[in-house]
Write a structure and sequence with these properties.
Oligomer: single chain
Distance between the termini: 40 Å
Helix content: under 10%
Structural class: mainly beta
């Protein structure tokens, strides 16, 4: 069973930066596609960024040029570097792993880390 633990959230001023980390247990990390989602108060959870097992990345338009997703397979960790943060980036950020399972795939989620952008 895969367990994901996010860290790195906190309070930051507009224009500031944070780096989120998501550490995965188990031996499947290198074959997993990883993603960061976020959920702001009163809103639905939205996809922020993805990275495939091969390292290809994709971003939602609202964070392009400001956020960078990366992974370190040796550390079983995926990162989200967030620059030029805006108040509208305030949300709980969740990590998700999608990994091969049997004939298909399975998702695992972390419990989230809160990012608050405010002066």
């Amino acid at each position: 069973q895969v367990q994901l633990v996010e860290s790195g959230g906190g309070l930051v001023q507009p224009g500031g930066s944070l780096r989120l980390s998501c550490a995965a247990s188990g031996s499947i990390f290198s074959t997993s596609a990883m993603a960061w989602y976020r959920q702001a108060p009163g809103k639905e959870r939205e996809l922020v960024a993805t990275i495939t097992s091969g390292g290809s990345t994709n971003y939602v338009d609202s964070v392009k040029g400001r956020f960078t997703i990366s992974r370190d397979n040796a550390k079983n960790t995926v990162y989200l570097r967030m620059n030029s943060l805006k108040p509208e980036d305030t949300a709980v950020y969740y990590c998700k792993a999608t990994f091969p399972w049997g004939m298909g795939s399975m998702d695992a989620w972390g419990k989230g880390t809160l990012v608050t952008v405010s002066s």
